Amino acid sequence: MNVLVTGGAGYIGSHTCVALLEAGHSVVIADNFSNSRRDTVERIERLGGRSVKLVEGDVADERTVRELFEQNAIDGVIHFAGLKSVPESVAQPLRYYRNNVFSTVLLAAACIEHGVGKFVFSSSATVYGSNDVPYREEMELRTPTSPYGSTKLASERILTETAASAPGFAVTLLRYFNPIGAHPSGLIGDDPNGVPNNLMPYITRVARGKLEKLKVYGNDYPTPDGTGVRDYIHVCDLAEGHIAALEHARPGTQVYNLGSGSGVSVLELVEAFERVNGVKIPYEFAPRRPGDLPAYYADASRAERELGWSAKRGVDEMVRDAWNFERNL
Ligand code: NAD
Ligand code: UFG
To answer: For a Cys-Cys bond, which of 108, 128, 147, 172 suits 135, CB 3.0-4.6 Å?
Structure first.
């Protein structure tokens, strides 16, 4: 397949491009580098052993999308391009809707117009809102607590309704849990701009001495050690989930949780990082972060049953590879 990967230079997109090349697919990356670096594309080619086509541009721009589809024979789309900071989305909701939702509309319309039958979308566990755990795909979704979450829910609906109206169009909605870690080569990984919002890149920067200490948001949650519990998944496992999704695409809309299926607390992740890497992570407890949920993790059985995919790499591998990437920067 010739796969259009929007946001292919980003954290999850870059790992997925490597997995696509390794699986024998061709890749067209469309990225505006708003949150990634150009040299990632060369690294993808090095790791994947083949070249990719790069189109630098904004996939929320109609002309860019039109040209992408006119100039490339595309068989499937994986749409990663999006802005992903929850607090930033509260401050700039329209920027988030434009970037994340408008891009979905344009890409879906171009697929229909050009007869491109496969569309894989990067959704998030945030669409479950506050629900019982583990999260199952058939649960009724709750109103997201941030504009970022709303852009994911809106994109899911737009794609579901489009698939219902267009015979043969295969939409796969992938709801990611918490991707961490990096490619074992240390060449690609998560390197956010500014001070990280997310736990793992914050930990690696503390370990490196770039930040002084970790703030653990909340130690009074109803969890075994009082800190927040999440379902961390190695980014290489997540990448492989996309290959399985593309290869099992079928008309209509399929929805899959991509998670490990088990919960890990903030303190457990810190402990694993210290033990595996032999580095101390100074931390202090801080108040709960507004909008955070106490604990959630995936029921990942549907992906295993229908896609033959499950997460293989454990927490020790995640923290080892995250640290290896940080030290390589
Ligand atoms: P990322 O920021 O590393 O990657 C996104 C990429 O898209 C970047 O390379 C960026 O430059 C590009 N981009 C953004 N807007 C664009 C536009 N309009 N046109 C072209 N390129 C554009 O983020 P990521 O962690 O790799 O996330 C990828 C996707 O997965 C996003 O849609 C995100 O919302 C979703 N997601 C991420 C997580 C997570 O924890 N990382 C969890 C759930 C869902
Ligand atoms: N945490 C800290 N200190 C930090 C950062 C995070 O203690 O400096 C804690 C959080 O309170 C939470 C856990 O670490 O308990 C994980 O936090 P992240 O920010 O890494 O991840 P979230 O689960 O909050 O966010 C993720 C995605 C979002 C998505 C959200 C809801 O990053 O895109 O899940 O599904 F919207």
So the answer is: 128
Q: pLDDT digits over 190-241, tens only?
A: 999 899 999 999 999 999 999 999 999 999 999 999 999 999 999 999 999 9
268 phi/psi in degrees, rounded to 5: -65, -40
- Amino acid residing at 143: T
Which is the closest atom of ligand 1 to the Cα of 179?
40
Q: Could you tell me the CATH superfamily of domain 2-180+233-260?
A: NAD(P)-binding Rossmann-like Domain (3.40.50.720)
Percentage of the residues of the chain whose pLDDT score is greater than 90: 98
For residues 69 and 116, the answer to whether their CB atoms sit within 8 Å is yes
How far apart CA 124 and CA 127 sit, in angstroms, is 6
What's the gap in Å between 226 CA and the centre of ligand 1? 30
Domain ranges of the chain: 2-180+233-260
Q: How confident is the model at residue 143 (pLDDT cuts 50, 70, 90)?
A: confident
CB 273 within 8 A of CB 199: no
Pocket test for ligand 2, best of 88, 133, 176, 198 (most atoms within 8 A of CB): 198
Mean pLDDT of the chain: 97
pTM of the model: 0.98
- In contact, 151 and 82? CB cutoff 8 Å: yes
